[in-house]
Amino acid sequence: MNRFFSVSTMCLALVVAGNCAINLASAADEYDYDLVHSSVSFKARHLDISWIHGRFNQVEGKFSLDRQAPEKSTFQLTIKADSVDTANAARDEHLRQPDYFDSKQFPTIEFKSTKVKAIEGGYEVTGDFTMHGTTKEVTIQLMGGKEIESRGTKRVGFSTELKLKRSDYNFDKTQIGPIGDEAIVIIDCEGASK
Amino acid sequence: MPDVLLFLKAFLSSASASTIFVLAFAVCRRGKVGSVPESRLSAAVILLSAAIGMFVGCWVLQVPWKWPLVNALDRFRELILPVTVTVELLACWKLIPRPIVWTLRGCVALAIGGVLFYGSAYVTRGAEILIPWQTWLILVITLLSLIGVWLLLYRLAARPAAASIGIALGMSLNTAGLVIMLAGYINGGAAAIPLGGAILATFVVTWIVAGTADMRGLISVAVVALFSLLLIGRFFGNISTTQALVIFLAPLLCYVTVLPAMRCLSPLRIGMIRIVLVSIPLVIVLMLSKLEFDQKMAPLIAGFGNRSDIVLLP
In angstroms, rounded to a whole number, what is the distance separating the alpha carbons of residues B289 and B246? Predict the structure, then answer.
């Protein structure tokens, strides 16, 4: 009988320890990209004297944030290239065509983190950025990360800017002229926990 | 930025290269025309002349040769076109049985839609623009239309003034290029320039120096090129289904000349009638495309002194 109890106690202890371990391992909070309170916009030089601004209206993403072990955090963003919006329908139509985003051939622009490091005021995230069928490793400084609870939903926000050259992503070089090669992508995103 | 001068240079270069090649062959083989082997050789030379013209035109346009082939235009230029030319060159070789030639042509026709749509949002799961049955329906309808037009023009090319069918196809190719460009896909439209130049020149010169030569091989290449470009323009660029259909079906107006009243006309007259008939819908489509271009792009060009500056904006 005693032996039975000691074995049972040991089993119970093992189960409890296992649960604790699982809880520790999954300490990361999962967030979904909140389209209503986020934006992915961009700007590029026009004739090297002014800026053209635009945004992408359809974006999806999720990120998991592990505050104890930031290196275990992950960030993922998928932008629908077709949703480009520069406040001019004719220009947007032109941008969707194969001379630019080629949105039928390359429907999405994606970012997937591969390495995360905590820095002061946020995270340094390295990941694969895929646009126009070309993937390049980029490092961005995601500033923010403050979490609040609003109406029962945990929310966290980040901001970042990413400079990239269209020519690095296999965009047609003959279409790089008056519109500068370099574009600045500005991401302000809010995540809501499930 | 579309460089009109460069486009003109590419067109003239491709046309000149093809013309020189056809003329050089005609001079070399003078007096030997008529025999069956000579006819097969002529057919091969006609194909090669056009291929050389296309290559020269692309070189002048500084078309980058890409590998891997990332988009539909690359796959058309570096896969579909060379394969079609090769199949038609094989068809000129008497050792290849006809059923094999027709099987190869069938394979080309079957493959075009899939090759052009490969990896795109039309066939990639998760990125659906269309639901799968819609994509299949499009592929089947376009395939049937390609086979129909191809067979009809191939059959008509066995009659007198075959070169005029080729000229009609060359005109359609050039119109397709311009319409695709006016709809905003500049590189897509530019791809038609060397093809249109080479095909037009080859048919015109061949008509002049050897009107009875077998031109069906190049007619096949022209049909495939026209079909592929219009498919790209419609599904990757921004041309409408109506524009694509009118341009693709316009060469079928050549069939008007098989009407009993016209059969007795001379080949030259038949050819001229065909060219005039085909050019009517093409000119109308081109004019409407220009009007649409002016309408859509007007807000973009406002404030710019030069109309060519619209390219300053996407």
Answer: 12
CA-CA-CA-CA dihedral for A10, A15, A20, A25, to nearest 10: 130
**Binary contact (B121, A105; C-beta < 8 A):** yes
Residue A125 has pLDDT above 90, yes or no: yes
Average the pLDDT over B158-183 and give the result.
Answer: 94
Pairing of strands A39-46, A29-33: unpaired
Nearest neighbour of A97 by CB, restricted to B238, B297, B300: B238
Token output for A101 = 């985003």
Q: Which of B72, B186, B238 faces A105 most closely, judged by CB atoms?
A: B72
Q: Would the pLDDT of B243 be above 70?
A: yes
ipTM score assigned to the predicted complex? 0.81
Percent with pLDDT over 70 in chain A: 84
* Nearest CA-CA distance, residue A72 and chain B, Å: 27
Query: Which residues in B lie closer than 8 A to residue A58 (C-beta atoms)?
Result: none
What is the Cα–Cα distance from A141 to A113, expressed in whole angstroms?
12
Chain A contact residues (CB < 8 Å to B) = 46-47, 52, 86, 88, 90-91, 93-95, 97-100, 102-105, 107-108, 133, 170, 172, 174-175, 177-179
Residues in Cβ contact with A71 at an 8 Å cutoff, skipping those fewer than 6 apart = A115, A116, A117
Structure confidence at residue B35 (pLDDT)? 54
Single out the residue of A62, A31, A56 nearest to residue A131, CA to CA.
A56
Map tokens 């629908």 to a residue: A80
Question: Is there a contact between A179 and B129 if contact means CB atoms under 8 Å apart?
Answer: no
Among candidate residues B144, B50, B43, the one with its CA nearest the CA of residue B101: B43
Does B188 score more than 60 pLDDT? Answer: yes
> Three-class SS string for A51-87?
EEEEEECCEEEEEEECCCCHHHCEEEEEEEHHHEECC
Whether the CA torsion B276, B280, B281, B285 is positive or negative: it is positive
Model's pTM, two decimal places?
0.86
With a CB cutoff of 8 Å and minimum separation 6, the contacts of A163 are A182, A183, A184, A185
Within 8 A of B121 by CB-CB distance, chain A residues are 103-105, 107
**Closest to A122 in 3D by CA, of A61, A182, A187:** A187
Amino acid at A173: K
pLDDT score for A59? 94
